[in-house]
Amino acid sequence: MKRFLLLIIFAACCCVKTMAQQFTVTGSVVDEYGRALPGVTIQSKKTATKAISDNDGVFHIVAQRNDVLEFNYLNYKTNSITVSDPSAITIAKLTPNTFAMPDKTDVLYEIKDNQNITGAVSSLYTSQLTTTPSTLYAYALAGRVAGLYTQQNRGWQGANTTALGQIDVDGLFYPNQKGLTAPNDNTEIGMTLRGQSAVTIVDGVQRDIYTIDPENIESVTVLKDGLSTILLGQRSSRGVILVTTKKPVSGKPHISLTAQTAIQEPIGLPDPLSAYEYAYLYNEALSNEGRTLAYTEADFQAYRNHSDPYGHPDVNWFKTILKNSSTMSRYSLNVTGGGKAARYAIGLGYLSDNALFKGSNTDYSTNATFKRYTVNSNIDVDVTKDFNVKLQMFARVQEDNQPGGGTDAIISQMYTTPNNAYPVFNPDGSFGGTQAFQKNLYAQLTQSGYIEGYTRDISSNLELNYKFDQFVPGLWAKLQSNISVYAANATNRSAGVPSFKFSVSGNDTTYNRYGSFTDQVNAFALTYSAQFWYLQGAIGYSRSIGKNNFTIKAFYDRNQSIFNYDLPKTLQNIALAGSYDLAGKYFAEAAVNYSGQDYYPPGRQFGLFYAAGLGWNLAKENFIKDNINWINNLKLRASYGRTGNDNVGYFTWRESYQLNVVIPTYPIGTNRASQYVTQQSTLANPNVTWEKGDKFNAGIDAAFFKNTFLLTVDYYNDRYTDLLQLRGKQSAMIGISYPRENLGINRYYGVEVQAVYQNNIKDFNYAVSGNISSQQSKVIFSDEIEQKYQWSKRTGQRVDVEFGYIADDLIQTQQEAETSAAPAGYTLQPGDIKYKDLNNDGIINQYDQTAIGETKPLLFYGATASISYKGFDISVLLQGVANRKYLLIDNSFGSGTQQAYTYIVGRWTPETGAASAFPRLTPGSNANNGLWSTYWVRNGNYFRLKNAEIGYSLPYKLVSRLRMTQIRVFANGLNLFTRAAFNRVDPEVYGQVYPNQRIVNFGVNVKF
Description:
Radius of gyration: 34 Å
Distance between the termini: 66 Å
Oligomer: single chain
């Protein structure tokens, strides 16, 4: 009994002691801007008690000394804080998840609950865009969205310096200046969405703008199916890239400032032959053709030992023209705040980018550069509780500079000029040159003046929203208008500088001049002008009756654009859309659109487009909800849309004429006078109409394990009809070109899978995302020229497949050369490419052409992984492509005397025979070896470490003392590692263009 009493007393003492250790912790929870977060769950690890933060982010929870409080909030990373002092106020800062999972998504012209979407929609958010250091946000899209295929075309922006010509709107002069497309500031990244070029919409307005600062973008939504895009009417076939800039958030002013500096270096550059190698192999090429040799043994020795740098130069032009690295800087400032009645968000951006050119000039910059300034402001005002006004202003100013010789021209010459062409400088300091190479590359870079470009883009967007709830609950109206102005011009201050051929004869030296000195010109040119006007009106009604929820909307918009003072182009849409759901379990959507485009013939400008979708969330059925608790969402959905594409051309339904000069001219007496006549340009097509698309999509949206694992699978089958194509069966006897007609039929189909898993182990947060897309296409009908053989038909093949000849290795013997089929007029030699004579007629001609490109479905994929712990965060993006081929013909010595590269060292010789990796050498183009064939088809598969970032955020306790809410330092990179099946060039950027670049970037972000 005594022992029992002692045990009770001991237990009571322990309880008293334990209770004495417990205390109430008071604190608050804030986001990265210091804004209060309501509804955050706080749990004590020692006492197992829980608390919820109130509307001001404040919480109270019972804890013990050295207890660990864990903070959990939807779409935010889990955070843990150790508490030891009961008198201290605990402040916890939460940061957003890597992959946001909001309940609503920005879709076309509205915001929708995710559970109600029955179309194919994918979204990216700020945190996924800002890790990519680049000049365009389009760089950040690669590998992140299923169905969106990207390929970089060049490593530097393309500058337009061509002045507008004289324009006469009656159709008599310069028809090439008419019917131009909208200006596009993306010249570097090619993007297709399910095989089609996408429509870009920024804050509800159709504009091809990619220079928006990623720090100022809230989300990028990709709309893939016909139902999601049907309100575009005659532009609904192409899919949409929908950009939404950051919206205002009420509260005290919150500021985010980001400063970044990047180092760029070229990748994928070829390795040119040295002067000695070039001379030796060029002689071999001449010998193979039985021609006189160009170089002697003395020349070889001089090139090899560099004893005569002026008469026998050896200049690696890649190293002479390009630096090893260049810099890029970017600064972003974003401010948001306001009260309940009025809110604002302002974003300022500045970017400075320098090209890789070397050289200097005391009078002007010789490097290609550009600077961009952007301003984006959003103001949101609640005039009354029912009336809301939104005003957005966007402005972009860009200044670019390039050498007077032209960036593209200099790059092209760099690729084609041999190392032994001429010295950079002659003994007297003049620029080297020859009859064949009259423009000295270094002179073109440093002494040819400069060309300045200036672009300005201003857009104003006004939106009015009114709720009629006081009269009819659920009734609302919206009016939106946008006016945009774009102008680009160039100032040409280029100059001419001669080159000289230095030669020595005995004791005499001579300089032969090519070209002449010309003063800098001072010419101004307007290169592009555009005006846009957009008007949208909508009225809708939403109502819930029990478990039945439905909405209906009447919609009208008018989009008018004027390019280069041409006749305006106007597109109008009149639509009716509705949706219904029963208890969040069964869904239905439908829309019909009467859409018109005024470039079509009168009376044939409008057409009817329609779409519908169905959805079923099985997770809400009792047989799943009551039995399988790890399934949180399992929605089946399907949609179909009859869509359109206004690929109309410039008034192709009416005749057009142009003035031309008759040659020979008309005789008058003993002289001849110029005779002008009016000629018809092309045949008119009075029956032209829009291209049509029948788009079907079926998908599954699933969420498992308390929404930690999300899975989306889509299958699409899109059939495009009435495609504008040139008729294959046409006659040249009429003496005029045929117009494009609505003839073609193509089919695109494939499967897309996207998955996300994110979770945490205490405050170690991790996330993994992956996507893969399979895209196949087929030409159903093409009015091609009558083909004699089945293998020559384009119909039935993949839409983008290349046609050419099938190479059957290299010819090894003279007997094989004499017995093999050859192009007409060409005599085969050992070392030439041998082609398959598909029709066995002994001649290689068009009847032997067949599909030589990839015919399997194109596969492209991406995977992202990220972790964060105690202020540290790391993310990695892997991206790749499979089942891709491209054609790259390697003509050694170009058209005769151009550069060649080290890969031709493996050319065919009698000694190397079948082990050769290149045909026999010939000086210039070869009528046999230069044909498009499988010999030159390259494997385009590649795998990239596309993007990676590491960052560290200083502890909140420390930065709050500085009156800040976040200080984060980071480093990220682009194109960090590439593994390509064909690695001689970059797998995306190849040819004589500005090279792709590897970028390593360092930055700091500060929030107040």
